[in-house]
Amino acid sequence: SVNLSQMDAIACFNLSHYELCFPQLNSSCRRTKRPHTEAVLIYILLSSISLLTATLNLLVIISISHFKQLHTPTNLLLLSLAVSDFFVGIIMSFQILLTDGCWFLGDLICSLFFILDFIVTSASVGTMVLISVDRYVAICIPLHYSTKITVRGVTICVCLCWVCSILYNGLIMNDNLKQPGRHNSCSGECVIVINHIAGVADLILTFTGPVTVIIVLYIRVFGVAVSQARAMRSHIAAVTLQRSETVTAKKSELKAARTLGVVVIVFLTCLCPYYCSSLVGQNAMFGVTSVPFETWLFYFNSCLNPVIYAFCYPWFLKSIKLIVTFKILQPDSCRANIL
């Protein structure tokens, strides 16, 4: 048994590690106290990741939007992904405020924060599905690619993806918008509740279903890509000029498939822990007063995508050079040859 003096010592030890978010309120939540050096390092690290994520994806957005040579169906999908990743960088700046466990921006902003987070997540997953379909058609049925995958068609699909994400997440978050903060247990908390049916539907529509489609399509893509690569190696010595052009085109498509395959694999690696943790501890309640590792891993994926482009797409490095040197402000810079 523990005597009273020991219990008092334990209570004092616990209280020494916490302080109130709002000292003037008896109903205030408690915030975690950290050593000054540790707190500074955490803020610098997370702020750097947030700034880098927003900056790199903004460069992708400017590059694809500005240069006409980059107005291709595949790049429009990358543009959609960059937009969602840019918003993730913005969301991360709000998450930094939560490292000590307190939310100071009010209940309405809390609900809007969650809606933006859910919309961006849904749009990212939807865009990944579209990227997988794009690569499937390009590699598996290349003769129909130019007719089935067009700039206009991809633009419509991307717009529908975002509109559906907004409407869907607005629907499942409707109750939390009507009465923001009604599920908070103390002042300084940010919690929303989604009913069980909506939670199951969300898990299927934004994780299980899309991930299954992505995996199935890319298994097929890589199977065909491997067989095409073997065929090209076996006939490379006896090609004509016309055949050489065809081989070059195929190599370009295979390289794009590999690059986007890396993007998809990294995305799934960062996404699965996030949803699996939600699935294991699924109680339809989500709080942002504590930010677990898997959430930051999911957000960090948005910083990795532009880095992958920089290593795999020469046009991205060329466009960055033109942007940072302000040469994109010159007349007809949108028609510059960067491929």
UniProtKB/TrEMBL annotation:
Major subcellular site: membrane
UniProt keyword terms in alphabetical order: Cell membrane, G-protein coupled receptor, Membrane, Receptor, Transducer, Transmembrane, Transmembrane helix
Keyword Cell membrane carried by entry: yes
InterPro entries the record matches: GPCR_Rhodpsn, GPCR_Rhodpsn_7TM, TAAR
Ranges where the G-protein coupled receptors family 1 profile domain occurs: 56-309
MF annotations from Gene Ontology: trace-amine receptor activity
PROSITE patterns per the UniProt record, alphabetical: G_PROTEIN_RECEP_F1_1 (PS00237), G_PROTEIN_RECEP_F1_2 (PS50262)
A GO CC annotation given for this chain: plasma membrane
Protein name: G-protein coupled receptors family 1 profile domain-containing protein
Taxonomic source organism: Dicentrarchus labrax
